[in-house]
Specification:
Blueprint (H helix, E strand, L loop, with lengths): L3 H12 L5 H8 L3 H13 L19 E9 L6 H10 L4 E6 L6 E7 L2 H12 L5 E8 L13
Antiparallel strand pairs: 1-3, 1-4, 2-3
Helix pairs in contact: 2-3
């Protein structure tokens, strides 16, 4: 179970992951040494997985996002593994999720424009193995995108 001090550290890191250990110590009223030990323990147990940069891919010229939902041919014993391994190699795939139910896999795919999307779809997506059915959902607007937890 997390201690209150650990929760405070995580709340501050969620709001600003660039805070130094000294700044965290000041805000949480803990010593810098304690911050260093606590962060190391949070990383060791896998709660804190690191800090990453969030890049706005739209500002880099990618204006199209499509959610592709796949039903796989599950008569093949390695259908999931082979599909996921191949999908990982498609650079335009931002996210991959697996499900239980009618839909097996969802891929979030980005492209510069519709012509680029058609190229990605035809040359990279349709060549993925074990596809039984595909449903494409064109992304219109992102209403909420929050990764912060209510700690």
């Amino acid at each position: 179970m997390l201690k209150d001090e650990d929760r405070r550290i995580l709340r501050y890191l969620q709001s600003d992951p660039t805070l130094s250990h000294a700044e965290l110590a000041e805000r949480t009223r803990l010593s810098p040494q304690s911050i260093t030990r606590r962060i190391a323990r949070l990383e060791e147990v896998g709660i804190l997985k690191g800090v990453c940069a969030r890049i706005d891919w739209q500002k880099l010229g990618y204006s199209v996002e499509v959610s592709l939902r796949f039903t796989l041919d599950k008569t093949q014993p390695r259908a999931f593994d082979e599909f996921l391994d191949a999908a990982r190699s498609v650079p335009e795939v931002l996210e991959m999720q697996t499900f239980l139910g009618r839909v097996d896999v969802r891929l979030s795919v980005i492209a510069r424009d519709m012509a680029h999307y058609q190229e990605v779809y035809r040359d990279r997506i349709l060549t993925l193995p074990h596809i039984a059915e595909i449903e494409a959902l064109m992304h219109v607007a992102r209403i909420k995108s929050e990764e912060a937890l209510p700690i």
